[in-house]
């Protein structure tokens, strides 16, 4: 693969700005025989189909809300495609307009982190990724885009982005804020032995008192087992498990007094099947909606968050 990886932000004020950057980017991929993928909303899709004309038939269009459903899963799927195409001597070309509307602050933060990690994960794939950001988005979202993309696209010209931040430094910034203490209502289990049968039974009992779906409960059990096993191996007693509910979420926290001496990745990048790396924390990120990790001299805390299905209100007659 001779192409150089690129990850650019396309800030735009309106339709003309959007098309001036997006259409040449997509046409270049069509002409080169790339796999060209467009991830955006219906309005932008209609504009692009019209602007591309017959070339639109060479482009795969995907709804942004479907694509941007889960940070780690989307990253894994896209990276897997890029790796396979690279092995075939082809390039993955993605125009991806993140879906920011309606997301909770923690979700926004994790997607911003993914934008930074893309620069490390895809570096050897030769992929070309262009991310349009409307200037009507919240100022913090647009400012973050300038820190997570090495280049800014103006029409067909790529300019170095002076606000760009090293991906690992940016990821560390996402974890700077200390986690708030677990609420007083949280239920607690002290982990005093390596036999995890009772732990899984305890988690199951609590989770079944919530709206959590059965398949999500199974995911939670695997994730909790992995995190507690890490705490037993790399942490220090006391090891405490807490669970509680927040609006729309079930939260499970594992806390110990040790410092997890691990690399900066913390499971943020999918391990290659033929390369180094463990699947433990990466698997945990795949299994849960959001994973928060804090480690240092004061100990290590891992919070697993799983989204709960909305329960329809009961209307009296």
Task: Give a description of the structure.
It holds the Pfam family MEDS. The chain has 317 residues and is an alpha/beta fold. The chain folds into 2 domains: 6-174, Rossmann fold (3-Layer(aba) Sandwich); 187-307, 2-Layer Sandwich (Heat Shock Protein 90), CATH 3.30.565. It contains 10 helices and 12 strands. The chain has helices at residues 15-32, 42-52, 64-67, 71-87, 105-121, 139-148, 167-174, 197-207, 214-234, 280-287, and strands at 6-12, 35-40, 59-63, 92-96, 128-134, 151-154, 157-160, 187-191, 239-246, 249-256, 290-296, 299-307. The strands form 2 sheets. The protein has a 7-stranded mixed β-sheet with strand order 3-2-4-5-1-6-7, sandwiched between helices. A 5-stranded antiparallel β-sheet has the order 8-9-10-12-11. β9 and β10 (249-256) form a beta hairpin. α5 runs antiparallel to α7 (167-174), α8 (197-207) runs antiparallel to α9 and α9 (214-234) packs antiparallel against α10. The termini are far apart. The relative contact order is 0.12. Mean pLDDT is 90; it is low at 313-317.
